Every structure is written in C-alpha cells, then in structure tokens.
Amino acid sequence: MAWDFSADAEFEEKLAWVRAFVREEVEPLDVLFPGCEYLPLDDERRKVVDPLKQKVRDNGLWAAHLGPELGGQGFGAVKLTLLNEILGRTSWGPIVFGTQAPDTGNAEIIARFGTQEQKDRYLAPLLGGEIFSCFSMTEPQGGADPKVFSTRATRDGDTWVINGRKYWSSNASVASFFIVVAITNPDVAVHRGASTFLVPRDTPGLVIETSHHLFGSYPHEPGHALVRYENVRVPADALLGVEGHGFEVGQSRLAGGRLHHAMRAIGVAQRAIDLMAERAKSRFTQGSTLAEKQFVQGFVADSYTELMPFRLAVLHAAWLIDTAGERAARTEIAALKVLTPKVIQSIVLRAAQVHGGLGITDQMPLMGMFMSGLALGLADGPTEAHKVNLARQLLGGYEASDAEWPTQFLGRRIEAARAQYGGLVAEVPTLPSGPPRILSA
C-alpha cells in the first residue's frame, strides 16, 4: 500500500487561508493577550477573539479533531497534521481553532466513552469553545506510575465518593469540570481496577490547594494544580465508560494527545528555523553576514535535516491512523513521544545561538519555545518511560537466536547457503580460480 500524505485541492486552499489568517490575525494575539489563552474571555478579549473563531467556523475548520457527528470536521489525522503544524506557530492558534490541549483529548474520550447525557452536558459546551476542562490523573507521590495511585472512589448506594490528591491537573483553576481517574478496586492491577469520573467544578469537597507554573510563565496563567478530593460525592452516572476500565480511557486520550503535540511541534520547529534564517541573513559581523559563516550554515542545514524526517514520521503515523486505526500506529506514536522534545530543543537552541544574547531574553520567543520542548519531555509521561515501552514493543517483534552464534555469523550463513544451493555448486563459498577475464569487443 502506498503512503499518501497529500491533500485535495479544496483542502490545500483551506490551508493557504489558514497560513495567512494565522500570520496576520492570530499571531498578534500572542503579544496582545500574552498568557491569556486559557482564561475565560472578558469583554475586551471577547471583542477580538469571538470574531476570529467565527471566521474559522465559517471556513469549516472549527474543532477539526472530531468527526462531523460531534461538531468537528472529520478531516482525518493527515489533514489534521497539515493544519496543526500551522497552528503550532502561535500560542493562540489552537484556541481560535477549537483544538487546544487538554480539551481536545478530553473531548475525544467523552465522545468515545460517554453516554448521551454526558455528551450533552459536557461535550457540547466544550466543543462550543465556551468552557475549559481538566484531566486529573497524576498524583504527587506517584508521578507517571499509576501502580502507586492512592486516590479512591468508593461506591455508596447510588453515588461514588472520591478521596485523594492529584497533581499536574492542568487548567484546574479555570475548568468547568474535571475528569478524575480513581481506584475503584484496589485488589486487582490498576489496568483493571481504575475508573474515570466526570466531576463538576463546584462539587463540594473539590479543593484546589495550589497551582504551580512552568518557568517563564505569566502569573495570571492557570498553571498546573494540586487538587484535593475530600469526600467528593458524585452520582453513579458520573462514571465515564465502564467501571474498572479507567486506564483504558486514559490511555486512549493520551495516545491521541501525544500525536497532536507532535503535529504542533512541527510548527514550533519550523518557526525556529525561520527566525534563525532571518537573523542569519540580517546580522553582519566579522566581514560578512552570519548566513555566510559555515558554522551558521551548518546550524540551518542540521535543523532542516532534523525537522524533515520528524515531519514525515508524524505524517506517517497520521496516515496509519487514517488507514488502519490508532492501534496500528502505537509504535510510531511512542517513537514520536521520544522525538518531539528532542527536535524542538535541538533546533530552538541553534536558533537562540544565532541570535546571540538577544535569543535568550524575554524580547524573543525562543526561550518560551525551548521550555515547551522541555515540558513535552515530561508531559504524558517522561521520555525515559516511553523509551522503555517503545523498546518493549520493538523487541516483541523479534525471536531469540542461538546464544553462541548470531544468525549473521559467517559460519551459519555458509550453512544456510549450502542448504539452499549446495546441489548446484561444488563447494560453498565458490570462488574464482584466477584473475577476472577481460572480454574483447
């Protein structure tokens, strides 16, 4: 089957519109309303942002990550990649297009596992772009290891009672509802003993103890919260999906989210290359422009040769999803989770170096871009954990050989050749007895 990353002419026209729209109308929001992407719109921001969102809707590009039955466009993963790599150039892009994390992943699992009542209550306003949501899974004592989760949900008649603490609950301070992963059966493995619940923000006992910010963030940003659930009582129909399948719900969300991060990372890296090239062409020192220095030329070339295969790898994973389903792309998504932070950090650091001291000031966006790469090496699980899982997946496709001599050991290869062709030749290997003959014309 041929790999096909192309888009039809109609969608190419849409992408051309998106490029111009993002450059001219969305990118200015990054300096007009810095750090306000996840804050509820006040009257001033609404006057600017709502008309932009309407333009996206009018062009049939709103919430492109979901199918049309859920208010999205049903473009598929390849087209979503081509769109998201443009939106990744700006902080406000995903907000204006209704594709911002973590709400995209939260919307996807409600769409996939939620009842119709849950979709009406939570999914509809989330897709409308009027509210934000919070995925509350990580715990302060356990980090990325769900096997040590201690937050419990206990059945009490027609209700569930949740107790425990969660950390890295992003956007908790502005979220209208929380998706909480809790242990409902501590006597079995977490893969069969965790469940997922939809909890409204105003539920008694839900307490945001504090919010922590990534280095360099604005203090008014929502940040990442430490949340305490103290006898939080929710009705039985707050269960999202099937009891005991919370890990499955969470993993389905995280896999798609990792690919979306990689899609947007293409835009981050390409923007860094653009900034690097512009500075190299503009800055004159030591008798020539930076663009004429071989060191800088190497920076530009190395950055492009890193981005090109990364972009193709993202498109390939997207193509696999479109043609064979998300499960077929598990290995590729795991590899992209490892690659994404490396590509951003590597390219952005070169761009900063070309800018000199200016590159590491708050007058340029490069350090913020670099921090996004660091964050993606930890978000949804650390890179090291994903390397281990990736290696397990890859090694699962191989069989052990003789412990003493590998299959490619010359003696074993000669044996195999003798078994295949021994009846046709006198000996293996068969070698010429003299120098090669020169044939006359």
Compose a concise summary of this entry.
This protein is α+β, with helices and mostly antiparallel strands and 441 residues long. The protein is 48% helix and 14% strand. The protein is globular and about 95 Å long.
Write the layout of secondary structure elements.
Elements: H1 9-26, H2 29-32, H3 43-58, H4 77-87, H5 93-97, H6 103-113, H7 116-127, E1 132-136, E2 152-156, E3 159-170, E4 175-183, H8 190-193, E5 194-200, E6 206-212, E7 224-235, E8 239-240, H9 246-282, E9 284-285, E10 288-289, H10 294-324, H11 330-355, H12 366-376, H13 383-395, H14 410-421
Parallel strand pairs: 1-4
Antiparallel strand pairs: 2-3, 3-7, 4-5, 5-8, 6-7, 9-10
Helix pairs in contact: 1-4, 4-9, 4-10, 6-7, 6-9, 9-10, 9-11, 9-12, 10-11, 11-12, 11-13
Explain what you see.
By secondary structure, this protein is α+β, with helices and mostly antiparallel strands. Among the domains are: 109 residues, Butyryl-CoA Dehydrogenase, subunit A, domain 2 (Beta Barrel), CATH 2.40.110; 148 residues, Butyryl-CoA Dehydrogenase, subunit A, domain 3 (Up-down Bundle), CATH 1.20.140. It has 14 helices and 10 strands. The strands form 3 sheets. It has a 4-stranded mixed β-sheet with strand order 1-4-5-8. The protein has a 4-stranded antiparallel β-sheet with strand order 2-3-7-6, with no helix packed on it. A two-stranded antiparallel sheet has the order 9-10. The longest helix has 37 residues. The protein is globular and about 95 Å long.
